[in-house]
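[job 4417] fold queue: 2 targets
>>> target A
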Amino acid sequence: MYCCCNQMEPALNDNDLFLNDKKHIVSMRLNNTDRLAVRSTAARLFVRESELYRFAVFHMMHRLSKLLDDTCAGSDLLPLFLEFREELNINLGLKKNQLFKIFNGKNTTPDKFVAMSDIELLLLPHHAVRQRLMQTQEAAACKQANTSEWLEDYLRVKYQLSNTSSEADSAE
């Protein structure tokens, strides 16, 4: 997404966020397939394309809301990145150093520190994750046939996570 706003705008404070409900023009590049899909979906829902784009942004920001919470850092972010693992890798192309800063940049407590070796697991393809987990003694206790479930269980046990994304979904 490319913002058409002036890059020199001052940072917004909390009061500006609530008092200023002004809409901004945003430009983004889409391939023809995605654009036609949005157009068709909007037509099927009897809404304007712009309303569908706003819905998509709102929905995604809601699902990524942990990233807006400054108290959420380190291992607190693991369930989010497990849920969106493949989508974030494919669409955003995040690198391990970026993820390290996202997880541990605001983290001051050692009990929430996420090891680089575990961050790398989030970026690897399934077959490489499985190989890496087989080489990790801590992961042997959680071994499962499904690599995604194995990774989730390994991280849940290692970082003492209470609820992961799939558990939360199944509880609803």
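>>> target B
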Amino acid sequence: MERQHGTRRTFPIQLSCRRLPFPQSSQLNHGIQTAYEFAADAGGMERSRYFGFSKDLYHLDHFLGMFGNMCGDLVNNQSHEVLEARELEPGVQLVRVRVVGPTGRSGDFDFLLMRKDLGRKAGSWMVKRLLKSKS
């Protein structure tokens, strides 16, 4: 995998990770809401595999609860670093991020990014799946 810090493809990840340490900012759960805005399948009526299993994410509240449960180390993280990024196929990227969680424990997360084809976010890199890395 190649390191790609600060590129457009890692922008949704960088933005979400920077916002997640501040869930109690002037806007409650602003970091998780930012992640929701960059979730490829959020807001639609189709089921999503964002968290690795089939789940409806048509409403922010559904995303809020799952994000806190499945990605707790990202919420209130002390720091984050993009470790690697690679193209799996045209328009699909895998990005691994290491975070230091609120308790000081570090963990890696894999973000599967896809380019949005249609709609108001056409051309943007969106997160299709976010999973805790097993390696």
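[job 4417] complete. Note on B: DSSP finds three helices and six strands in the chain.
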